[in-house]
Amino acid sequence: MNRASPFLVGLLFGIGLCLAGMTDASKVLAFLDLAGAWDPSLAFVMGGAIAVAFVAFRIAGRRAASLSGEPFHYPTAKRVDARLVGGSLLFGVGWGLVGLCPGPAIADIGFLDGRAALFVLAMAVGMALYSGLAAVPSKPAATVAIDNTADIGRLVNISCRATVGTGANILIAGFVVGGAGTSGSESLLIRGSGPALVPFGVAGTLADPQLKLFSGPNSLGTNDGWAGNSQVASTAASVGAFAWASPTSHDAALLQPLAAGAYTAQIAGESGDTGVSLAEVYDATPAGTYTATTPRIVNISARVQVGTGANILIAGFAIGGSTSRTVLIRASGPALVPFGVGGTLPDPELQLYSGSTVLESNTGWAGNSEVSAAASAVGAFGWSSSTSNDSAILVTLPPGAYTAQVSGASGDTGVALVEIYEMP
Questions:
Q1: Residues 189-194, mean pLDDT to the nearest whole number
Q2: How far is CA 146 from CA 149, 270, 292, in A?
Q3: What are the residue ranges of helices labelled H in 69-188?
Q4: Residue 48 belongs to what H/E stretch?
Q5: What SS3 class is residue 74?
Q6: Whole-number CA gyration radius for the chain
Q7: What is the CATH number of domain 150-422?
Q8: What local confidence, expressed as pLDDT, does residue 61 receive?
Q9: What are phi and psi of 277, to 5 degrees?
């Protein structure tokens, strides 16, 4: 079925193009001739295609895979940029000049149409030229600057906002301190906000967050009310964290140096209650003292119950320093099943934001070899299925603040794990 279905669907598509007249260049040119002898019949073809596709996409959105077992691959780009506008204009000019576009031109080759064959050949040459130009690296000198500066791009702040439940559904944020060639310890500010989120319009906040820090099974510290600690307040101000207005609030914080290693910050309701909370980890290294051997945050992960609307998984991170940094961002749902995690999110959609601008989006990693190699390089657990709906983004970012958001692609809910890795 998997091998036959592409052929059968392609055959059906080609027959449809022929019957609709889309392969007739003169008919297409008449449709585009709005100021002349306009033939509007192709408008009904396009309208019918949109209606069928609208229904088909709604049905597909409720399924985990196609009838042949293959994953669905939806468009992920949502930005209107110069490349989109320029490409659309070039496409429109070419379509208007010859009355052919890629699908009908390929179908016309079946009629031994020499003009269509020449069109497809020219199109293939243009695609090859574009691919070749896109593969040429630019600004090679930037690599030298990154390697030679001590103020390298690095993760200086990580955060995760989610609904805190009970039992296995508390907020669990893991992070790793280290980095190649580093030694000593890193001063970190770790916060668990609940009541402090109310002034920002966040509803249903966790009234009494209890923050616990672990290294493996060993408890390193617990706090269930910061009590206006002056050191916590001054450190928060120095790292750019938003201020907690009330010294009597039940927001929790820990400030302590940590050696290289893996740690877990857990936030739960002290009295067993539930609500929205924000976990934050800040690099509190004093300004101007960072060196290439200073340990840094190299990974964050958070496993939470992903809801809808304001209750999706939101993980923020900031890149400091003076150079760009490549990061691997993953959203695992189906990949958690082999670890015994129940109720996982079946189709995590991962979106990367800078402010309100979507930079990248992914729904289904499709076995991407670069993502697989990057995960291996940073020691992330492997995804066993190349057709799973787990999602990933591998991107190089300049210093700044970013947000990774995880939601159900079809509006569903479940447990998901978001991970952000600094690439070595």
A1: 96
A2: 6, 45, 12
A3: 82-98, 102-109, 114-134, 141-148
A4: helix 41-60
A5: coil
A6: 26
A7: 2.60.120.380
A8: 55
A9: -140, 160
